Fold this protein.
Amino acid sequence: MEATIENVGFQTYSDYKESGVEWLGEIPLHWNMKRFKYLADYHKGKLPKKITSEWKEGLYPYMSMEYLRGGAANQWVLDMKIKNVEKGEILLLWDGSNSGEFIKSRQGVISSTVAHIKFFNIDKRYAWYYSFKIEQKLRNETIGMGIPHVDGGELNNTYVLIPSPNEQTAIADFLDKKTALIDKAIQIKQKQIALLQERRQILIQQAVTRGLNPNVPLKDSAVDWIGMIPEHWEVCRNSNIYSESKKPGNDSLKILSVSIHTGVSSEELSDEENIRGAIRIEDKSSYKLVEPNDITFNMMRAWQGGIGAVKVRGMVSPAYVVASPKCEINSEFFEFQYRTPEFIQQMDRFSKGITDFRKRLYWAEFKQLITVLPPYKEQLQIVGYINDITLMTKKITTLKEQEIEKLKEFKSTLINSAVTGKIKVAGV
């Protein structure tokens, strides 16, 4: 076999043969091939008729996608006649955007969009790793114009490579060890990204409440969540800084939106990005004008951080509040302040509504919120400092994410090479 990116640095088998299957290529001479239907069964789940959000002893969790991917269980199945799947079983996502993906099971009940795969006469761990090879094929061949789904006939006729039992065990042992090391390296880099973001948030919090000069004299703000601030700064209510604006927009303006993650958009969302676009575009008569340096927020999402500074002229939904500056300020500074956890908690406390779903932050409450007000010149300096931190954090995060992608690609290549015999693992 010729040296390739898949087998460089590893041993290979002495003799190979053509598999006759394009997506498998050459395989070790002594390996066998069988179709999936002779080595495994699959049983699609059944959508439970009775699901509760209240846990009771003896109930099994319902395996939603969130739960399958490691989230907390929040639904339990009342119908105990539906089969429970044990932890560690192999599942196949049958319908939807992730159709064709194999995933390890947590204990619980699967729906009709998921199939339980049971391999027999083959090492279970080897079968799990080989499923990644099948996945590559299935995800390219899902069918359905609307919701893609797995073609059962295609799955049943998919070839599975069968090394000897000893080789299956050796391959599984090798991949267990190597993938664990790769996963650990990925987790370390993901933790580094999280720490970078956490550090950025701490620096922003310090900058918008303490300024950039660590030696400046401080005074008590008399507000618990703010604490000490530079003695030449002010603490005031938003009504001293902003007035509500209800100026109407017009059809020539972009419709802007506010994200709880990224603040106010500078471009209008397309119909594909905004599922309510068709309704929104039909009636613009009640939309509000926004100007650069305004602050705007979604009344229903402010308590989650849905607030930001406007950078371009446009208009926003009637469900938004627009606050226009009454004095010389830089609204980017106040966006950074308003999006700190402490200020978001303040907006949460002032929001009206019995439940989270019904919470609203109106202008009457927003104008009462307490804000830290430094001199205008310092606002600009702090915004520049935070933008520099953000840029540096983004650069490092991008590098870490690229490293993670390379590790994931290497993991995929390693699994693919081992289960197709492109490399010969130790112990074989």
Notes: The chain is about 35% helix and 20% strand. Residues 271-280 have pLDDT under 50 and may be disordered. The longest strand covers residues 114-119. The CA atoms of residues 223 and 319 lie 30 Å apart.
